[in-house]
Amino acid sequence: MSGTKGPEEGPTRAFSAAEIGALAHLYRGEVYRSTVWRTRLDTTTNWSVVTLGVALSITFSSTQASPLPLVLVGVLVLFFLMLEARRYRYFNVWRARARWMETHFYAPMLHEGDLHTETGWQEVLANDYWRPRYHVALWIAVGRRMRRNYIWILLIQSAAYAGKIVVHPEPPTALADIWARAAVGPVPGEVMIFGGVVYVAAWVSACAITWRLDPAKRRHSTGDTSMG
Fold this sequence. Notes:
This protein has 228 residues and is mainly alpha-helical.
């Protein structure tokens, strides 16, 4: 394997057989760590689904049951979302490193039998080990987890809340009935429903904004910022 110098990157030096073996073990380690943290992401998602299921069971257990559990579980689900976004930032570190080695070392090695590596990629990876950091911001991580799982959980919660109001104890005959059923203690029903609309719109907007920003980030990233 020979190295050349790119216009803005350092030279790629050749690896010895021992160094290639060490790099292979490093890759296996990064894949293992990303797998462990990926499993932790599934755990928080499962907690959210279970708690939503409990709230649905309580709310629809009788016609006189209050829809309040569905409101309270929303707070708990958002807590799980923030916890999962934090875990995702850790997972993304290990995943990005493994993917970096796949695309800049293993893929060039396998492509049409060409045994060269792309220039400058070792320095990017070395800098990431010397100065570890998150590769995505917290709000980007929140948006990604919302798009993958939580938007569906929150939409089911909101639909169940609306269904409870219009079904139990009997179908409403006037708009005043809906306001009365949506009221929680001293909070008027109008405020509760308006808050619910803002709640759903905020998270749908977060999904849409991050969905548009992620491709733009990949197109304009250079150097170590392209990891993640």
